[in-house]
Amino acid sequence: MIPVTTQKGKRTALFGLGGSGMVTAQALVAGGADVLVFDDNPERVENAKEVGLVTCDFRENGLHHYSALVLAPGVPLTHPKPHWSVDLAMAADVPVIGDIELFSRERKKHAPSCTFVAITGTNGKSTTTALIAHILAEAGRDVQMGGNIGKAVLSLEPPAQHRCYVIECSSYQIDLAPNLNPSIGILLNLSPDHLDRHGTMDNYAEIKERLVAASDIAIVGTDDNYSAAIGSYLKAKGKTVISIATSAPLAGGIYLDHRRLVEARGGMLESIADLDDAIALRGAHNGQNAAAAWAACRQLGLTAEEINAGFRSFPGLAHRMEPVRQLGSTTFVNDSKATNADAAAMALSSFDRIYWIAGGLAKEDGIEQLRPFFDRIAKAYLVGEAAPQFAATLGNTVPYEISGTVEAAVARAAQDSAADDYEGSTVLLSPACASFDQFANFERRGDAFRDAVLALDELPVKEEQPQ
């Protein structure tokens, strides 16, 4: 844990007692702050009392005489309207901050020159965070990884000059971190997301821009107009910016050419990585993640050999294009995190011949937009409530069967793939659906797929029919 010593002796209010909120409250107490906490959920308030935290409904006396309101990132700051605790803070002229801000203050106080890589973007930030942390750890660095990726930043080891912090930052967290100051800031991409919390796309992009604008070195994607404009603006302001791309070559920067990363510098082109050797980094979207990781790790002094070794050994994130097993020439891939068609498109574009397991609780737009990838699908195995809807979309274009459950789909897909003469097919769970019809969350669904795959003793083969 990182004790928040910068709030020592200061009266501090904290609202939001979920996972990261509880960690933040305990880190504040450990650092000597006078902390009062609250939540709209009475059960969370009781849980806080049980672990020794002091609770108080701030509406009783307001937030006057507090040094700060520490807000959990999931609590509305501005849209659709400020949470009542934020209104109280504004009325009392009390700053509203979050856990990334507290981390930034602790780093500045105790180890201002320690490496801090911060990653944001609409898509890919978790994979990029995990990839950078993996490469650094494999190269022998003392790495602390956390933030929006699932491990609260204040649960990490305290700042020290030799440590490397690799932190995923959501727009919510950036919005609550006015003194965010990474050594290296990465903005991967921007597309409409969380507009219910930020009002407009321009507001959302402006918040994301803060991370790279405040960094010593900025790594910025150029595949979308918003990110490209931010990169150009920062360059014009004199900031060191490394551009990355997957959609087109760059005159300067790192870009994806088929499955190779190419660095363009001073009119020279150099092939720097072959991603065919990195099974967990398939697809153009992972090319962007790899380009960002390459740029960051080179800036941190790693050799090309160390980075490429990290690419090859990277296991991927659970449930995100996760290679589970290879039997014969068939690879089984768990992409349970693909809870909508946009996410499934990334997976479908990454393989040439696919036995596709899809379905669950359908999103409103279904899978019609995936039609450009139908020619890659050897057969589909449909599960859950969405099965009839998806079957209607597939029609006569893609062979399919209604499997019902993930376990049944794995068995049938494994059997069909084994009987295929094609070398190198993929059994892919990429549901394009929420999981809630059959599973509590996408993690449970992915676990069911993984368990079914690992339970296969060998790849079953259809019996030959008598002539």
Question: Which SSEs are present, and which pair or pack?
Answer:
Elements: E1 11-15, H1 19-30, E2 34-38, H2 42-50, E3 68-71, H3 84-91, E4 96-97, H4 99-110, E5 115-120, H5 125-138, E6 142-147, E7 163-168, H6 171-175, E8 184-187, H7 195-198, H8 201-213, E9 217-221, H9 225-236, E10 240-245, E11 253-257, E12 260-265, E13 268-274, H10 284-299, H11 304-313, E14 322-327, E15 330-334, H12 341-348, E16 354-359, E17 361-362, E18 377-383, H13 387-394, E19 400-404, H14 406-418, E20 426-429, E21 433-434, H15 442-454
Q: What do these coordinates show?
A:
This protein is of the alpha/beta class and 467 residues long. 34% of the residues lie in helices and 22% in strands. It folds into three domains: 7-97, Rossmann fold; 100-313, Mur-like, catalytic domain (UDP-N-acetylmuramoyl-L-alanine:D-glutamate ligase), CATH 3.40.1190; 322-454, Protein-Tyrosine Phosphatase, Chain A, CATH 3.90.190. The chain contains 15 helices and 21 strands. Helix 5 (125-138) packs across helix 10 (284-299), helix 5 crosses helix 11 and helix 14 (406-418) packs across helix 15 (442-454). The longest helix has 16 residues, at 284-299. It is globular, with a radius of gyration of 24 Å. The termini are far apart. Residues 462-467 have low confidence and may be disordered.
